[in-house]
Write a structure and sequence with these properties.
mainly alpha; two-stranded antiparallel sheet; 2 strands
Length: about 130
Amino acid sequence: METKKENTNSPKTIVLNANQWEALRYLNTQKLGTLFKAIYKTILGKEVAEEKMAGDVLIAYKFMMKQINDDIERYERQKQKNRERQKRFYDKKMRAAAIVDDPFGALPSEVASEEEQAGATADEFSF
């Protein structure tokens, strides 16, 4: 008995494409219910017993889950790109703020620590 658990970290929203209806319209109401119940269980991270599905329901399930998984992967990639873009924006903003605060243009990473400054001062004035 094979059970599957997928997409435990998936978004709680899925998109159903209208063009899939052409294939799904041949399923009766009970089979459509079984199909959508299996899709929602999978999305919510619950186990789905594929061997209990009728052949036509299983085929539709596999095709729909492939599309849903592709959509989820695309969503995750876009989310990561947005995080990186936001980080670059705020890093740039912080560097600009550091330059305004320090008219000599030293960035925070370039500023010597207090211990380094104290050590340099002591060395400069030792005879």
